[in-house]
Amino acid sequence: MSINFRERALAELQKAIEFDHKKEYKSAFDAYIIAMELWVKAIKWEKNKVMKDTMREKMVIYLDRTEKLKKWLDEGGQDDNGGGGGKGPVAANGATSGGKAKAAGGEDDDNKKLRNALSGAILQERPNVRWEDIAGLEGAKETLKEAVVLPIKFPNLFQGKRQAWKGILLYGPPGTGKSYLAKAVATEANSTFFSISSSDLVSKWMGESERLVKALFSMARENKPSVIFIDEIDALCGPRGEGESEASRRIKTEILVQMDGVGNDSKGILVLGATNIPWQLDAAIRRRFQRRVHIGLPDPNGRARMFKLAIGDTDTTLVAADYNTLSKDSDGFSGSDIANVVQSALMRPIRKILQATHFKTVMKDGKKMLTPCSPGDPERVEMTYDSVESDELLPPDVALKDFEMALADSHPTVSKDDIAKQIDWTNEFGSEGA
Fold first, then answer.
1. What's the pTM?
2. Has the keyword Nucleotide-binding been applied to this entry (predicted)?
């Protein structure tokens, strides 16, 4: 409940700050009022004492700004977006909202633009992926719970030298569930989740990329506890060398400083990275990730569970033993490969309907329905799907044979050379397997 109110409050605050920056003070005041009402509810429902204290501190700052806007409006102040020469209401830091040097929140205009550019990286909607929705990967799930869930729920456990993990790297072949684990973290963790790709941090303007990195970590610190998920982190943090551009070097340097630099408080922030090619990471970046978890291909039990999860509540004729059969026949398949096999199998009845030249009448729940049949069926009627009404169509059952045929038409996407390379890197640098 608290997460929902807090996210809604943050969304309203973002609107209020944008109105404030545009000198639309009446709209800013209205948005601040809505945000504060939601913020009060979020504090009421928040159970974590540390989080509640942090939220109260932030509320004082925004209430101060709201009060200044109210006083300005009560004294007859007008929106200053019409080219007038009047100054806006004084901001919390003593500057004016209408001044060029500082924006309403005490930030300069350029910094405000950078933060706006990164605002889309904050996940507003939870992906709705639970831990139980992920087959296998128990080691990875336990590590992520240690790093994200427990420090928020039981902050008293992490005192003195016992501190939560600050950086976790998920690596392994494509399609094994690294990004899916990140979705589970976003769903399960009571924290602000930033989902970042290289395009969010790379700019064509000189010096702006590293400022984006700095702004990202500043926003994460302001909204602690936070998780910064960087997908395909190798695209940003490749090895430094002679052929490297100056811009790329500066981005990596800023990430290194923000993750573990002198004077930067990283408590309450987890950097979660994912990559298919961990050997392409810079050595210093690799060191910043205290836990390096190998997300390998699923074992037989994991594959059977993946088939069940991928099928979900779709009607099939499969029984428990059939999942073991499919698991044995799919050795070397990744989770993504299995999802594609299931999708192909579930589409086979659709293809039968499209290709059918004959249908027959069957009874389903006391109602007459039409289903495709062979030309030799004694009850056949020559027709195509064009002649069948939507409420009369009964699709064929999805059977084990459909899955076996889909498997026969599919091949693993992860090569043996790639698997061997991942294992070698794990033996040299990995923390644990999953």
1. 0.67
2. yes
